[in-house]
Task: structure prediction
Amino acid sequence: MKSYTKRDFPVDNIRRFIEPGPIVLVSSAYKGEHNIMTMGWHMVMEFSPSLIGCYIWDQNHSFDMIRKSKECVINIPTVDIATTVVKIGNCSGRDVDKFAEFKLTPQKAQKVKAPLIKECYANLECKLIDSSLIKKYSLFVFEVVKAHAPVHPKYPKTIHYHGEGYFMVAGRTLNLRKFFKPEMLI
Result:
């Protein structure tokens, strides 16, 4: 086993070690308007029903759209549109129609009014089921009510944020199932 020589590290930069998952694009719609935001702070909270917690800054244009419509789509992009994902995060939907600006294709969802993004690997239609943490923490709790994903590749090359403009691409997959107890597999 490898050992590491460690030094003090700034606590406000620890996110580069513990980011929860891939960068996603969250699409929303409210009163004829639609938007896309780039988001990295999310977490799976339950398997059945499928719950996802998302931090959405109250100054983000999508914040009020999602809070008022009580729904969104979490779209999972892959590395091939990574530059677009970053550019979407660098502008506001108050000023830019992001679907048009970044040549993304909105598709009709089945259970929510927010659009799917065709160019993304997977799309998760979500309904807000718990708003009690929004005012204090900007934390939205969604239930995934419909999911769309291809069969192949099973493990796409998603992008993960390390902070300060650095990203990691999900790479090689390790199959360690033989080390798990069957009752612990989910």
